């Protein structure tokens, strides 16, 4: 029995991996950067790593197969890996950015879920915890495909829940708002640290540990309780008014 976390090298994923490992769980940490995973492995007990791009299905399958027996039987799958690329309006976006977000946020997440789900059903035990986003619910300029991928995660989580009902398997979607201390915004702004600084200025945004706490809470509710979703924002964040563009 183990907990598999994707995107575990940094940010939410790393904090989630630490939270579970520090509470006695075996953790499978998946991410691209081997050195970061090795350093995580040095920090926590009971951790095995899979260093690969989760969009590379062959590498991923090889990684799953290489796990020790007591790590292979994943009972909590945390689909955390995901990214936003760019904040331009749709008409000005690079299609390659959209393609990559769809590959990681939708296709890789679906593939990994598809791989582990049958075993969970067979064991009558398992929990799939997806990391969605408030962007899957609330539209904002520049959110275009990123928000749409997170809307997929939201609906996929609900549809999975409908399919696994009665099996003992649980499905949850954690939807954070503005979150700092991860590489998310630096990736989104393509390395422009000034924009990142401005985004977080005086905001007291959510921290990776806040998300890890929510994930751990959801996973540790009694087995008969399925928390379908948690939407969390920093106290400082709110909703924008609906824009009206006037002709004059
Ligand atoms: C990230 C949260 O507010 O940048 O998923 O869309 S937000």
TrEMBL record:
Keywords in alphabetical order: Oxidoreductase
Pfam families, A to Z: adh_short
Keyword field contains Oxidoreductase: yes
Family: Belongs to the short-chain dehydrogenases/reductases (SDR) family.
Protein's name according to its UniProt entry: SDR family NAD(P)-dependent oxidoreductase
Species the sequence originates in: Helicobacter ibis
């Amino acid at each position: 029995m183990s907990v598999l976390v994707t995107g575990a090298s940094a940010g939410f994923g790393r904090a989630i991996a630490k939270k579970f490992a520090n509470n006695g769980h075996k953790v499978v940490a998946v991410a691209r950067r081997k050195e970061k995973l090795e350093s995580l492995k040095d920090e926590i007990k009971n951790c095995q790593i899979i260093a690969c791009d989760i969009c590379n299905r062959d590498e991923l399958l090889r990684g799953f197969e290489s796990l020790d027996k007591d790590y292979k039987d994943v009972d909590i799958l945390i689909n955390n890996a995901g990214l936003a690329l760019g904040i331009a309006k749709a008409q000005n976006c690079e299609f390659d950015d959209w393609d990559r977000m769809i590959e990681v946020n939708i296709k890789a997440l679906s593939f990994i879920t598809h791989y582990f789900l049958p075993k969970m059903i067979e064991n009558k035990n398992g929990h799939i915890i997806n990391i969605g986003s408030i962007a899957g619910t609330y539209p904002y300029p520049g959110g275009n495909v990123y928000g749409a991928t997170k809307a997929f995660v939201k609906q996929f989580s609900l549809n999975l829940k409908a399919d696994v009902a009665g099996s003992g398997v649980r499905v949850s979607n954690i939807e954070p708002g503005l979150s700092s201390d991860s590489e998310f915004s630096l990736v989104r702004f393509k390395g422009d640290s000034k924009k990142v600084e401005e985004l977080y200025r005086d905001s007291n945004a959510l921290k990776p540990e806040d998300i890890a706490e929510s994930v751990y809470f959801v996973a540790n509710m009694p087995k008969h309780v399925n928390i379908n979703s948690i939407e969390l924002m920093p106290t400082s964040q709110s909703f924008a008014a609906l824009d009206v563009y006037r002709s004059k």
